[in-house]
Design brief:
The complex is a heterodimer of chains A (115) and B (107).
Chain A (H helix, E strand, L loop, with lengths): L2 E5 L3 E2 L5 E8 L7 E7 L6 E6 L5 E3 L7 E6 L4 E6 L8 E8 L3 E4 L3 E5 L2
Parallel strand pairs in A: 2-11
Antiparallel strand pairs in A: 1-3, 3-8, 4-5, 4-9, 5-6, 7-8, 9-10, 9-11
Chain B lengths: L3 E4 L2 E4 L5 E7 L7 E6 L5 E6 L3 E2 L7 E6 L2 E6 L9 E8 L2 E4 L3 E5 L1
Parallel strand pairs in B: 2-11
Antiparallel strand pairs in B: 1-3, 3-8, 4-5, 4-9, 5-6, 7-8, 9-10, 9-11
The chains are: A mainly beta (115), B mainly beta (107).
Chain lengths: 115, 107
């Protein structure tokens, strides 16, 4: 069955770079697209960006300058890198298989930005 | 970018009650509207895709409708497990936007 699992550091210092990994199983990244979505504590969901099955990417214009999404198809992993972190980037970060919507989600990884 | 306005933000309701959650887009979205349920433990479950199509395994008490800029999610008779957060989401030109969410609470 399709599974996605996020991993990464729970705590990042302000101004530093966040690196997260989404490991997928039950699907191929060469024929499926994956998005990153985040949710600050007590707030709603924000789509961050997508890596398409062909390796192309699209990003939320609000954070595009700070965000990079890449992948390693041989390891079935999708990566998120976001620089210049601030406290408002504290959130649960999810990865999700992407078509016109998001039909499979990971459980999420909590990231706190604090010194 | 298209903005999604979801109403109400919270809704007290009773078991067995019929409820409707609304979602309005800032411009027409050609039925590219999906709905999700988020449980208190954070788990997110897709419910409906392309306005009115139930995801596999979703009970038939859930339904979706709408067109143009206005869409809705209806639960015909609330069960205990339905008390959760609900989000609408649109797709347009390689970007996705969520509504602000509706918290369905037990009255």
């Amino acid at each position: 069955q399709v599974q996605l699992k996020e991993s990464g550091p729970g705590l990042v210092q302000p101004s530093q770079t966040l690196s997260l990994t989404c490991t997928v199983s039950g699907l191929s990244l060469t024929s499926n697209s994956v998005s990153w979505i985040r949710q600050p504590p007590g707030k709603g969901l924000e789509w961050m960006g997508v890596i398409w099955s062909n390796g192309g990417t699209d990003y939320n214009s609000a954070i595009k300058s700070r965000l990079s999404i890449s992948r390693d198809t041989s390891k079935s992993q999708v990566f998120l890198k976001m620089n210049s972190l601030q406290t408002e980037d504290t959130a649960m970060y999810f990865c999700a298989r992407t078509e016109l919507g998001f039909d499979y989600w990971g459980q999420g990884v909590m990231v706190t930005v604090s010194s | 970018d298209i903005q999604m306005t979801q109403t109400p933000s919270s809704m007290p309701a009773s078991l067995g009650e019929r409820v409707t959650i609304s979602c309005r887009a800032s411009q027409g979205i050609s039925n590219y509207l999906n709905w999700y349920q988020q449980k208190p433990d954070g788990t997110i479950k897709p419910l409906i895709y392309y306005t009115s199509n139930l995801q596999s395994g979703v009970p038939s008490r859930f339904s979706g409708s709408g067109s143009g800029t206005d869409y809705s999610l209806t639960i015909s008779s609330l069960e205990p497990e339905d008390f959760a957060m609900y989000y609408c989401q649109q797709y347009d030109s390689s970007t996705w936007t969520f509504g602000g969410g509706t918290k369905l609470e037990l009255k």
